[in-house]
Amino acid sequence: NAxxxxxxxxxxxxxxxxxxxxxxxDMNHEYMSWYRQDPGMGLRLIHYxxxxxxxxxxEVPNGYNVSRSTTEDFPLRLLSAAPSQTSVYFxxxxxxxxxxxxxxxxxxxxxxxx
Amino acid sequence: xxxxxxxxxxxxxxxxxxxxxxxxxxxxxxQYFMWYRQYSRKGPELLMYTYSSGxxxxxxxxxxxxxxxxYISLFIRDSQPSDSATYLCAMSASYGNNRLAFGKGNQVVxxx
Lengths: 114, 112
Known about the structure:
Chain A is an all-beta fold.
């Protein structure tokens, strides 16, 4: 049981490039989310999804797009990378909305935008 | 003012000492309080989960919530080098809320 898998682990982009951060979970969790973690800022919610075809914005959604075509996958797209998007990105999942179960986090993607 | 305040300054303690961490918050609607532990280059993992005011104990870990003061604490007794990690508090207003509010995290180093 792999849990939450994020790829790639590391990425360097130039300003203006686009890319997709991948997140997959094999626990059949309905709820999935993306956070970014910055020094001195803590974890901030970017987007989340409560099921296939349903997404919503979090605290810091600008510059990011998401889609949820399957239960397992929740990719995060950076449309035009900016240095301010240099961060560590975490994907997290939980069985259902309103569930007592904790969030399961992946091990992160470390993104540098130059 | 951020909803959740947590002093991130690194904390170094000798092995066997008691570690004391705390968070304050401003949103009186918060009822569910969590502590996550994050090892270097890993994702956070849930350590403790409490509802409303009171204490909860799990082995060497004790979580306390004082809703009247909007203050939560985590105590680690008999600290071990393996406890060296960043500890993040998190809270929400409702059960399984989709929007957890996290503190900045507190780095703890336990020196053998």
